[in-house]
Structure formats: C-alpha cells, structure tokens
Amino acid sequence: MDNRSRTAEQLVIEKHTERLRRGFHLWPGLKQGRPPALGDYRWTADLILSTWLQAETGMPPTNGLEHRVGNSGGGFDRLDFKFFPQDRWLPDTVTIDLSIPLNRRPYDRRIEIPVPFYGAGMSFGSISEPVMRARAQAAQVWKTFTCTGEGGYPESLLAYKDHVITQIATGMFGVREETIQYAPIVEFKYAQGAKPGLGGHLLGDKVTATVATMRESLPWVSLFSPFPFHSVYSVEDHKKHVDWVKTINPEALVSVKVSTPTDIDMVAVGSYYDGAHIVHIDGSYGGTGAAPEIAKKTIAMPIEFALPKVHRCLLQEGIRGEVVLMASGGIRTADDIAKAIALGADGAVLGTTELVALGCTRCGNCERGRGCPFGLCTTDPELSQLVETDWAAERLGKLYQSFQLQLSDILRRLGLSSIRDLVGRTDLLLYRSQEETR
Amino acid sequence: MPPPAYFLSGHAINPPVLKSRPAHHWDDYMYQRYHVETSPALEIAPFPNRTRVKVKKHGLATHLLKELIRYRGNREVALSRPCVYGVFSGPVGGFAPRNYCCVGCLRCTIEYPEMVQVYPEPEHRLLGDSYFTPEQVDTICYEARTGRIPVKGAGYRGPFGGEGWDGMWTDMSEIVRPTRDGIHGREFISTAVDIGQKPPFLSFNEQGAATGESARTFSIPIPVLFDVPPASVVSRKFLQIVAAAAQVAETFAVLPLGALNRFALQGRQIIPLVSREDADALTELRFTPLMIELDGWNEALFREIRRRFAESTICLRHDLGSSKELLKHYHSGIRVFHLVANYHGLGPDGRFVLDLIREAHGAFVEAGRRDEVTLLGSGGIIAAEHVPKAIICGLDAIALDTPLLAALQARFLGECLDRQGSRFRLPRRLTVNWGVQRVENLLASWRDQLLEVLGAAGLRDVRRFRGEIGRAMFQKDLEREAFSGIEGYGQ
Predict the structure, then answer these.
(1) What is the pLDDT, as a whole number, of residue A89?
(2) A435: contact with B, CB 8 A cutoff
(3) Sorting pLDDT into bands at 50, 70 and 90, what band is B181?
(4) Of the residues B123, B143, B160, which one is the last residue of a structural domain?
(5) Are residues B275 and B211 in the same domain?
(6) Residues of A in contact with B174 (CB under 8 A)
C-alpha cells in the first residue's frame, strides 16, 4: 500500500511507530551517548537501554552497558554472587534446568513452567489491548503465563487462555464465571506492592467505552478498586474465597498476591493453610499505573527483605516444600531473578521489565491525560496503535531468551544444574560495600 | 468574589467564619468532617521545569523538508509531532520548544536522537539545599499549587533506603482490620491530636465528684502546626500569611513575640514565642494566647508567664538531645515540649531527628509520664511522609518550618541550617491571599497523605500511631534480619 491509499491518521501512526523502533534500536548502540535525562536510581539509563537491546537481540549486551544492577545503593544492587573459580563451573555439555513447578502440593493439577518467571497482572485499561495480547502471545510461546490484572478478560486473550492467569481483585472488575473457568491459575490480589493497603484507581480519562464495557461500568467515570476485599476480614474469609473459586473451576491452581507488611511471614503461612498453591509477594518498589508517591516510597518493605523472612518462616513451619513462593516488585534483570531465588523465592513475576522491553522510559506519566506516550499504558485509540502485537511479542520473547541465557550462565558459574537448587541459597550471595557498587 | 475578611484584616485576625453564624444555626448541630478547602494557586515567581528540550534548528528544517517530500506535501503527516504534551505545539513548533510543557517522557529524543535532546534543567538543580533536595522542593510546590497528593505511574525511582527518614518504612495490613475503608470515605479516620497536659489518673471524692488536677488540653484537627519563621523572612505580610493560614486550618502558628507586637497581630491561633530578652514585651501583648512558647528554659520567665497568663498552656522550646533535661523540666511543671532540631534534622550532637525523637519519647515512657505530656517537633521534617514517621517515633504533632517557605516559593540562599543564620528570598509578588491558599493546599495534601498511610496501616486515629514503633520497619533491622550470614554483610 502506498502513502496515497492510507488515511493521514494511519500515516502519522506509521511514521511515529517507525521512528520509535528506530530509536529503540539506535540508543542502546551508544553512538549518541546515553540520553541525559533517562533513568533513575532503580532503573538507570544503562538498565533501560540494555533491556531494549536484549529485547531486540535476545542476548545480554556486550558493548559495556550495565545490565545486571541499578544504582539504588541497596537490596539487589548491593548483592552479588559468589561464583566458583572457572575450573569448577559446569561445562556447557551439562543441561541447565530452569523449570519450576507452580504446584508443590501432592494433589491438584501439575503445572510446570520452563523458565522461573511469568508475567505480572496488568489490567486492560491500565495497559492497552495490543500489549496484553503481546504478553499472552509471548507467554504461550515460552510456555509460561501472563496475568489479566483486574480489568477483565478481553476476548482476544481467549486464544491464549492456557497461559493466562485470571486475577480477582477487590473491584471484581470483569470477573465472571467464564473468566474463572478459562484459567489454569486464579490469582487473588489482596494488595499491590506499589500501593499497599490503598486499593487502585483508574482515572476517568482511561475508562473508554471499551474499558467500561469490559469492566461493566460507565465510560469516563473513574473506577476505584477498594481496599480490602469487603468479603474478607479474616484468613477464614479468604478460605471462603478459595472455596468459591474451586467450586467454579476445580482444576484451577490458586495464587495469593500480597504485599509486604511486617507480618508477611504469617500472611504467607495463613495463605498456605487456606489452600493457596502460590504465594506471590509483591515488594514495595514494584510498578503501577498510578499510585501516590508516598505509598511507593514509604509503605511496606522492599522484596529483598520480605523473601528471606517468608522463606525461613515457611521452613520453620515445615510447609516450605508445599508452597510456591513467587516474588515481584522491583525485579528488573536476570540477576535480580536469580538473587530473589537465592533469597528464598521459587521464581519471579515480571511487570515493569516487560514494559521497558517494549519501550517504556519510566517517565511515570501512565496516568496523565491520554496515558503513555509510547502506547503501552494507555487506552487512547490512537496511541495504542504505536505498539503492534507481533512486534511486542517478539521483543518480549527475545528478552525472555536473554534472561534464560543469563540465568543458565549464573547457575553454571555457581556449579548448579537446576534453578530449584538455588532456592534460599544465601550462602551463594555476597554483600557488596557501597564503594564496591559505585 | 472578594477575599474573606480575615485575609485582609491585617492587624487582627477575626474568628473563623463558621463561628460567626447566628446561635442555634442548624449546621452547628450537624457532624462536620474536617476539611481543608483547596484551590489552584499557580506559581507567582518563575519555577524551573525539571527538563530542558534542545532542538537542532538546522536539522529540524532539513528534516521537515524531507518529510514534506516523503509524504507528498501532506502537512498533517509531515508536521505531526513526537510530543503529546504540547512541547512542539507552539506557533513555530520545534523551533521554539515550550519547556514548561515537557514531562520528561523522552519520546521526542527517542524518535529523533540526532535532532532533539532532553537535558535535566540546571536551574532546577539549584532549588533547595543539600538537605531539602530539588525533588523535594518540586513536590512541595506541586502540593502547594494543587492541594493534591502527588500521584504518578511506574514504580519508585529513588535510592533503596538511606539514613534518617529514608531508612524507615511504615506498616500495612493485608486483610484483617475493618477500619481501612476510611480513605475511600466510608469510615472516618481522625487526624486530630490533643495538646496540653493530662493528669496520670483521675481522683474522686466520696461524693463521686472529680477532684485534683484535671486535663487541660485543646485539640487541633491535623497534627501540624507552623513553626516560628527564620529571621530573614519575618515581615508583616509573611506573618499575616502564617497566622491566617493557621486560623483557616484550625491549627496554630508559633510567632516571635517582638514581631507580634510590632505588627499588632493577635488571635487565638497564634502562639507567641517568648525569650528572656523580650520578656518585657509580654506586657504589650494584646490577647491571651491559648499557649505561649518559652524559647529555652528560664525559671523566672516561666513563673512570670504562669502568673500573668494563668489560663495559657506553657510550652518549652528545647533542643532535641538531652532526655534527662526534658524530665527535669517536666518536674519543673512543663507539660508541652517543642523539640527542635536544625533545618537539616540534626541535633546539637549531630544525631538525626528520628533517633532523637525516639529517645525523647522513650525517656517519658520509661518514666511513666508520656501520657501526661505533649511532644511537638520541628527540624528536618520536610515531606508528607515525614509526618507519620515522626509521629511513629514519638511526636504528637509537628511544627512546619522550611516546607512553608518552599510552598511560598522562597529561594534558599545557600545552605539553610538554622533559624538565625539561614537566608531565604521570598517572591516579590507575594500576597496574603495567595500565600494562605498555598499553605492550605500544602496542608490538605499532607493530611490526605497521612490518611493514606493511616488507612494502609489499618488505623483510624492518628493518636494511635504515636510511638507505635511496631508499625514501622527500619532498614538496619530488616537488613540485619534478611542478610545476616551473607558474606560481606556487616563488615
């Protein structure tokens, strides 16, 4: 099709799509240096650029971009691995097993994923439908999962339903019997790390007619996900929720997503005894479409502190072997995934990292006006077209590939042949001084 | 609409409008939720944007020509801009970018790396000082401009933790407490605190009537007062702003006695700060304050004030640091303490305000006297998050200092460490109405953020937060618990 047969709107979108993709390709090459205003303490310019590069090549960068740690001065950025000397590394001939089970109880459906990560819940409304589809497509190719988030289950995801987790959150937006029946895993979101104890708020500007239909609400009216579940005021009430889901879909595994209060260990134990297969802990430095800045910084603890606490508590209770502990909230790189596992998780849940792979600059304007100017966290009909599903799915797949390579390499250097052997191995970690990390 | 009278009354600050209603007005019998009225108050002095957009003009002209050719003169396509916020939407587009529209998304520079660059604005880096960072000034200005809670997308961007307030997190509750609906308006969360003195217990005579000492407290609906301003900004206009803002918000402002007399200011929302040097000026005070603040301990002055203003509560302004001295002053009759660190949150011995507050609170707890006294605090409390943290550490309320100045767009001239030596420059176009609105907006925003923290913690009364260290998490403790045993930790 030449330019004359397309509308001006189509041409404008094509023009900017092309320019953006060119930019995502050019910047990590460092010919122009690093964009001076890109990056922050957690996601440095190098981390963002290296994620773009990995999403393009499927390989970790070799041009000097720092792709392992950020500059936050704490947590994952202070931890490193105590690698063996090279002569003790596992040879390339040894196959490294990165798979993890998502049900460690002796009963119920067996589900295993070949990589120790899956996609976090990001709702339709907070992100665009093409991005949702791309995440599902990538999950299908990699035989892992993505999650609907709270905004309902777009029909276009049905083709990938074996790889889509249905999330039930406090607003119950788009939760129907069918969407629970589709799901191999149902996730109860009790709290979100970035806004723990506060619920959610989808601003009116993002509630387009399509979003409103999906969420069974009114267009252009802000939507609140209250906090907490108004049907759950005790751990026994939570059991009632699990029973309800199991009645609708007896095959489904149950995941419980919680934030990180001081008693997170007890919350994890309670979740286990109420039937959860997966306890998903979302640390306070996780992503969000919109949250008060005070909540992101001040409320609840970072994931690095919560994981060892929960892991040890589950061990002491004698139930660690029956719980799958997934970590999210500030996991940016393959190294972070491995560190989270060494601190006690079984695997990680990726959210922001996936968006960065698709071009997010972490500008934080997701909730402003028409939404993300890169077409990721938006429901704006024009901006959404900047992200094409196949292009995005391919980039996510490439990022997964790069993470797979790096995780295998980390295990090889630690002399481990399975990621399951890394769980809780804090003895394989090093704590770097502030000077060493600069 | 003309501004309310109390903004313009100049010398005397009239009572709040609500109280001027006729007696038995039906509203007086209605339950009224505390509310700070917000209204946009845009900056009156230039305020630097975070970013600056630079475009290579020659490159842009060439590019536009190429685009016009490529799209066969289709101007809509050729001239379509890579910014959805209007940076290039001025009359000459990218030839004169509108920096003030830039939100730092970087889409322009991603699309056109060779032509557009976005830089951190150097002017912005000059805001505040080494403690009050440009980002914190930015946040205060947003809060004072809009009255809103700063909300953004994406996750937290800052350092992992750090010294002082940054190494402290507040708790949240997952499911088990039914009080958290308050932030969505269904259940009330109280931010009111009491100031004054309470007896440790009540005594009754044989007839059942209370005897002995009774509680002498007054309540403020928000745990924030205004501290005495630094000498370099004391002027009639500035004091009018602070006094009027305190009145509207139903809180209190500590103001220097000399200036009160000089500018003939009065009102029950004013707490005169009295030092030994201006004790004689007490005779010129034109009103009976609810509370008088003693600037450092002086027994003679204390007795004099107690004699002359028997109805007023006396508060002692005291450096944060020596807990023994505080208890000594308790035994001398002081029940309200205003504990002060410098503007960077450091006590005389160089320790940070967080530890000093905990120590002072702990000393009264240990002595079994904590519930009898009120602890107010100032210094180093410069962000909304610091209020709940300071209260958890043991304060009843805080008194704002430098954030008021930042809200009023005062420029920090060098390092601003203390009240006497710091220099600030207020905007020339400062007006009382604008100033009051900015302060009100700031208070509304901070109160809403306090509600968020209380809501998340499952508490419906800020008084329950006082000294509740168990509902806080400290980086040092968490790190020790999580990383002990990891090679290199603690070395």
Answers:
(1) 97
(2) no
(3) very low
(4) B123
(5) yes
(6) 190-191, 197, 228, 258-259, 261, 267
Q: What is the distance of C-alpha A72 from the center of its chain?
A: 20
Burial (CB < 10 A; 0-12, 13-18, 19+), residue B366, is exposed
Do B193 and B291 sit in the same domain of this protein? yes
- Assess A114–B contact: CB distance below 8 Å, yes or no: no
Distance from CA of B202 to the nearest CA of A (A): 37
Closest CA to A404 of A23, A27, A116: A116
Whether the link from the prior residue into B134 is cis, omega within 30° of 0, is: no
| Cβ-Cβ contacts under 8 Å, A235 against chain B | 175-176
B183 has a pLDDT exceeding 80: no
CB contact under 8 Å between B84 and A383, yes or no, is yes
User: Which residues of B fall within a CB distance of 8 Å from A259?
Assistant: 172, 174
Mutate to test the interface with B, among A42, A127, A297 (most CBs of B within 10 A): A297
Q: How far apart are the CA of A148 and the nearest CA of chain B, in angstroms? A: 18
Chain B within 8 Å of A309 (Cβ-Cβ)?
yes
Confirm whether A108 is domain-assigned. Answer: yes
Identify the closest residue of chain A to B110 by CA–CA distance: A23
Q: Do A292 and B452 touch (CB under 8 A)?
A: yes
Measured CA to CA, the distance from residue B6 to residue A429 in angstroms comes to: 64
pLDDT at residue number B20 = 44
Query: Which H or E run contains B337?
Result: strand B336-340
Query: Do B184 and B319 belong to one domain?
Result: yes
| Mean predicted confidence (pLDDT) in A278-301 | 93
CB neighbour list of residue B81: distance below 8 Å, 6 or more residues apart: B87, B88, B89, B93, B94, B108
Q: Are residues B110 and B254 in the same domain?
A: no
Give me the domain span that covers residue B108: 51-123
Residue B17 has pLDDT above 70, yes or no: no
In a domain, A30, yes or no: no
A370: domain CATH number? 3.20.20.70
Q: Inspect the interface and report whether the beta carbons of B455 and A227 lie closer than 8 Å.
A: yes
Tokens of B354: 């967080």
Arithmetic mean of pLDDT, B175-181: 50
Q: Residue A120 is part of which domain span?
A: 100-437
Q: How many CA atoms lie within 13 Å of B328's alpha carbon, on the beta-carbon side?
A: 8
Distance from C-alpha of A213 to C-alpha of A194, rounded to nearest angstrom: 27
* Residue A120 forms contact with B (CB below 8 Å): no
Written in H, E and C, the secondary structure of chain A is CCHHHCCHHHHHHHHHHHHHHHHHHHHHHCCCCCCCCCCCCCCCHHHHHHHHHHHHHCCCCCCCCCCCCCCCCCHHHHEEECCCCHHHCCCCCCCCECCEECCCCCCCCCCEECCCEEECECCECCECHHHHHHHHHHHHHCCCCEECCCCCCCHHHHHHHHHEEEEECCCCCCCCHHHHHHCCEEEEECCCCCCCCCCEEECHHHCCHHHHHHHCCCCCCCEEECCCCCCCCCHHHHHHHHHHHHHHCCCCEEEEEECCCCCHHHHHHHHHHCCCCEEEEECCCCCCCCEEHHHHHHECCCHHHHHHHHHHHHHHHCCHHHCEEEEECCCCCHHHHHHHHHCCCCEEEECHHHHHHCCCCCCCCCCCCCCCCCCCCCCCCCHHHHCCHHHHHHHHHHHHHHHHHHHHHHHHHHCCCEHHHHCCCHHHEEECCHHHHC
Asked if the Cβ–Cβ distance from B456 to A427 is below 8 Å, we say no
ipTM: 0.94
Per-residue confidence (pLDDT) for residue B266, from 0 to 100: 92
Residues B211-226: what's their mean pLDDT? 92
A412 vs B211, higher pLDDT = A412
Q: Do B226 and B309 fall within a single domain?
A: yes
Q: How much of chain A, in percent, has pLDDT values that exceed 90?
A: 79
The CATH number of whichever domain residue B183 belongs to comes to 3.20.20.70
